[in-house]
Specification:
The chain has a domain of about 90 residues: Immunoglobulin-like (Sandwich), CATH 2.60.40.3720. The chain is about 15% helix and about 30% strand. The strands form two sheets. Strands 3, 4, 6, 7 and 8 form a five-stranded antiparallel beta sheet that branches. The chain has a three-stranded antiparallel beta sheet with strand order 1-2-5, with no helix packed on it. The radius of gyration is 27 Å and the shape is globular. With about 140 residues, it is of the alpha+beta class.
């Protein structure tokens, strides 16, 4: 009897957790609207764009939508985004949190930030590099 009342009580308690519901994070491209969907939010939802490959290395790009009611938002990736791995973080005011799929922006420009440095050792090495002697092998 006790076991059945415990199971009945546990079944009556339902735990809703914020989840994203998009099945397709492919072909997201700059300037083209993309419908982001979620379910089971405990209050208004905020969407944050994260950049980078894995959680310890995420860069918080921007919270691009705040206090959203309902279960969807149409986002248009801006032209200032570059080619990289991105992720959307969902958070609701009830403390719920979820992540979308990783995605790459289609046709996004690459970030070109390079630094050229030259040292005296590199110049010397470049000036004194010679070709290695060629060897001839004879096979029986």
């Amino acid at each position: 009897m006790k076991l059945s009342s415990i199971l009945l009580t546990a079944a009556a308690v339902s735990v809703d957790a914020l989840t994203f519901t998009n099945a397709n994070f492919y072909n997201i491209s700059i300037g083209n609207p993309f419908n982001i969907t979620w379910a089971d939010a405990s209050g208004p939802v905020s969407l944050t764009l994260l950049k980078g490959g894995t959680e310890p290395f995420f860069t918080n790009m921007t919270t691009f939508a705040n206090n959203l009611s309902g279960t969807s938002y149409v986002w248009t990736p801006s032209a200032d985004l570059t080619s990289d791995t991105y992720l959307i973080h969902f958070a609701d005011t009830g403390g719920g949190s979820a992540y979308g799929f990783y995605f790459a922006l289609v046709d996004a420009p690459y970030s070109l930030s390079t630094t050229t440095t030259e040292s005296a050792a590199a110049k010397t090495t470049a000036a004194t590099t010679t070709a290695a002697p060629q060897s001839t092998y004879t096979y029986p």
